[in-house]
Each structure stands twice: as structure tokens, then as C-alpha cells.
Amino acid sequence: MSSATLISVQEYVATSYRPDRDYVDGELQERNLGELEHSLLQTAVVAWFWTRRKEWNVLPVVEQRVQVAPTRFRVPDVTVLRSDQAREPIITTPPLILIEVLSKDDTLRSMRERVDDYLAFGVRHVWIIDPATRRAYVCSQTGFQEPETGVLTVPNTAIHLPLQELFDQVEQTS
Predict the structure, then answer these.
(1) What residues does 58 pair with on adjacent strands?
(2) Mean pLDDT across the stretch 147-160?
(3) Shortest CA distance to 158 belongs to which of 56, 14, 11?
(4) Smallest Cα–Cα separation from 47: which of 170, 135, 171, 130?
(5) Residues 114/74, Cβ–Cβ less than 8 Å
(6) What domains are there in the chain, each with its CATH number?
(7) Would you say the C-alpha torsion 141, 113, 65, 53 has a positive or negative sign?
(8) Which of 154, 153, 150 is nearest to 168 (CA)?
(9) Which of 47, 78, 157, 173 has the highest count of CB atoms within 10 angstroms of its CB?
């Protein structure tokens, strides 16, 4: 049985990792690196939000460190900030949306832990997108639910992400 080397929050924050890593209670956790389909989908999601950023008053960013608890930092695939949210080197205020694009090695257990961290931090909109199955999920404390309409939305806003259109864009680039 191997033991993890624990590091301090200060050391984590002061260190750059390539690729970046999550930090959970003193332990560095490698993130599953995406392959081409993962990267294409991540890019398509960011492009969708980027082209509508002024209309929706949002700012999408990729692989941005988010401090979800005093000793827990996550690096979501896509973070969607409100345009008036403070710009910090590490996000410490719940963003509008956090999006994870599944990699082939992601497990339900690891994804559930990430989602639980996001929800406990106060993020109200957590989405998971699976490029392999062309499905997506809205995450809550009670589980992962596919959107009935095939569109991920932020209720009471114009913000929406039509999955079929997104997957078609990715497919056209392959």
C-alpha cells in the first residue's frame, strides 16, 4: 500500500503543476487527462459561452483552480463566472456554473466526490458532459439527472447549452 505525501495549502498554491492537479486535504490528485474528444468538447463548450458572454454577462474559463473548502481545491474543465464576479487568481466565490467533461478513466465515485465538493461550496449549477455517450447530466445532492429537453439551462436566465448542437459541432471537426 502506497502512502501519499501530504503538502500544505501554501505549497500547493505556490506551485505550478503541468498538468494542474486537484488538492484534497493535503494530497495532490492527478486529474484524468482528456483525449481528443474530451478536448474538442471542452473547447466547444467554452466557445459556446464565449460567443455569448456579453449577452449573458458571463466569463467562461478553462481549467481554473477553484478553492471549494479551506483544504480542497478543484480544477474543473470549464468554469463559468458571472461577469461581475471578482477576478481572482484562484476562485474563492462560487461561480455560476461548473462543467466537467468526462474522460474515459473517470469513475462515478470520483465524479460524485467532485460534484459534492462543488455543491457544498455553493455552486448551484453543476453539469457533467459525457463525450462517449453524447449525454449530459445536471447534478444535485440527490443525483445526476439528464435534461428532459436535451438542453442544459440556468433557470430564469437566457443561458442554455443545446447538447445536440454541441455534439454535432464536435463531430464536424473530427
Answers:
(1) 82
(2) 97
(3) 56
(4) 170
(5) yes
(6) 33-173 (3.90.1570.10)
(7) negative
(8) 150
(9) 78
